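[scheduler] slot 2 assigned
[scheduler] job type: sequence-to-structure, two independent chains
[scheduler] chain ordering preserved from manifest
[runner] begin chain α
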Amino acid sequence: MPSVAVKLYSVFFKLLLKHRLHNLISSPPSPDPFGVSTRSDESVAAANPSFTDGVATKDIHIDPMTSLTVRIFLPESALSPSELRRGEDDSHSHPHNPRSDRRHSHVVIPLNQTSPERNESRRKSYEPYGGYAPSAKRSSRKLPVMLQFHGGGWVAGGSDSAANDFFCRRIAKVCDVIVLAVGYRLAPENRYPAAFEDGVKVLNWLGKQANLADCCKSNRRVNGVELKKLNVQGHIVDAFGASMVEPWLAAHADPSRCVLLGVSCGGNIADYVARKAVEAGKLLEPVKVVAQVLMYPFFIGNNPTQSEIKLANSYFYDKSVSALAWKLFLPEKEFDFDHPAANPLAHNRSGPPLKLMPPTLTVVAEHDWMRDRAIAYAEELRKVNVDSPVLEYKDAVHEFATLDMLLKTPQAQACAEDIAIWVKKYISLRGHEFSY
């Protein structure tokens, strides 16, 4: 059984979440096409382009018409040995200047409490390093790309939330991948299908980035816009001098090894994006979705499963609270638990046949009322010969590996490592050297 601390935290979590959902229902914000991708009362982690804790991060607003953003998590393993040595040499040759160390964001300097002016000058001289910038003169290691969709019941969370930042850093390191955490638009300002469309938009953006990076080798015209090569970091600029290529992805990303990972309601988005990737086929090249990971997906249906009956009042996201979240997410005229966004096995589900879906790893928790429907979906995939194992964690609750309070538990760490073992079957350049 979950610990007493988890049970108490769950009680307060559900009270606060239910209060937030009722407020959004009683006083709904006006529809806003631009939308919001994070709430003002959320605990967020600032992006840090230096390799703090072995991962550098940056935020990119990829759609000028909406609030859609991505946070890039670049693990230090992407650096070539020469780049690592350069960072070490810089730190040794300038021991008193932390800004020359590309792998650390800050140092602690003892301050003289009797001299405020001197302390202020010290603070300025020890400002964080401006961030990692790949060198066009050095060959870079290419890493697979993982698109991550956060949870939060459609109305909360964000790619920059403190909990999501911690989780994505962990995944980037254990899986040895570049993580793109998607800051999709939240409900109720933007109801279905906004979040799903944002997921597809990021996948298309990744493909565009890969194609533009190839244009760095020569001057070309793309969509009627003349692209000119710059000698600095191989950037491509348009006629106004605006950079069009994301340098971290151009230097280090291999989009032909793309994995989707969805947490809770993000699992529903990931599954939708996977279907759209199958439909697009070669039109997405060079992007290829090779696998997806669904972590306790937010599935529901009109005909209740055994777990939905037995565990309806389970921890954190119980069934009544989740129903409120679906009410805020689905348009009023489309509200139905058998909606294709809610039930992956609904009779009205459109898209490609299940046999064409990518390999799918499903993570479920013992004390989660959504578990049975996720397992049923995995079983249907297996029936048509799709690799779709299920990892079930005992004494675990919904979001046991991603919730802020539970992130540092041994079970959360073990889950990330289990995901890495399976994912590496499909992203390893040396073939299926791993088994599960």
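[runner] end chain α
[runner] begin chain β
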Amino acid sequence: MKRSPPPRPWPAAILASLRGGGLGVAAVAYIGVDYLRHLSQPWHERLQPALWAALAIVAVARVPFYRHWDAEVRSALPFVAAMLFMLAALLFEALSVRFVTAVLGLDWHRNTPPLPDTGQWLLLALNEKLPHTLVEILRARIIGLHHFLMLFMMLAFSVLFDSVKAPGLGLGARYMFTMGIGRLLRAITFVSTILPSARPWCASARYTIPAYPHRWAQKYYVPYASDATSIRQLIHLDMAYERVAAYIDDPRPDWGSMNFLIDFLRPSAFEGSSWYNLLKRAGGGCNDLLYSGHMLVAVLTAMAWTEAYGGFSSAIIWLLVMHSAQREIRERHHYSVDCIVAIYVGILLWKMTGFIWPMKNKSRDRKLDKLEKIQSRLVQAAKDSDMEEVRELLKEVELGGQEKQSSSNSKAMWLFSGATIFSTLTIVLLAFTWTDDG
């Protein structure tokens, strides 16, 4: 009769549950508790701090037992480089957002109707056909940009429980590097052709830009914006032939070495003291920005979750991505094309950056090298029916595939681990602060 294995001690049982699905439970709990703000504010105020405290305590308690700090140290430099690249990409994107909003002036935003969007038509038709409860679920603000960022942070921290392959900084470097590439491609895309917003009132509510177009638009766009004869003549001559009687110039504050940005940002007399403060007050663009930045974040989070963790929780994450996409269209933050393009761009970009993380092949190659070295001994032990020797040799192969742990400077390693946890939590707080308005 086969004997059952002895029960594991409770710390091992908890760790096994976290490996087996605890991360998915924590993700669902986080989304559910945060949604309570729309259902019961008192319960939300009680449960959210308790959940954050529990997650933080569990993560910090695992730090002393984490066995892959050497791998984290090797990934620290790529992580910092990826973060700086992403910040530079976000700065370029912010400049581009302001330019496409300001260059044509407020009158263009007020008078240009939204583009026809069949995705919006479909959702309006479904509102008439689907049960009211289902429509309310589709309308519910279940998940937003900061939720997807937090889900990725939970995924990266789960390396402490061996739920995700180490190093966590390597996973973070891949996420930020991919995000930076996606943001650069997005800015280049939407700045190439200026599309009207699905919310025509947006620019008037958010910006204090001039009502008239910039002098570049006065010369190259306005004379040929609507008249078919003028457009035909422009194509024939391939030259801006209309003469502008008098350009309307913008205020020009003194930004020193950054004066070249004035033509791109078009500051008003009330907001011209600093180009940086002007960008901070923007709070998002008021044109259609092809493709959706919100959806890019959502898709990258779902791709990272699927590859690193997998399981049933990945399906839930992808359902939340789809829910977020239809809400972006339903609430007219984006056109359907923006969300569709963001989905396949995010998937393709994540697939292209697999060289950064995970480092699975190195471990496999080390095991194969070790197996090749002991192959003759392993065959001989099998012929001799020496199972003890076979187990010892296989154990050598398994240990040979693991990364070597350094114990030369434990004090420096503890300092690094503390700095890593502190800086990562700081990044989380900054991300929440900077994305609270979308």
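[runner] end chain β
[qc] chain β: Residues 72-211+248-360 form one domain.
[scheduler] slot 2 released
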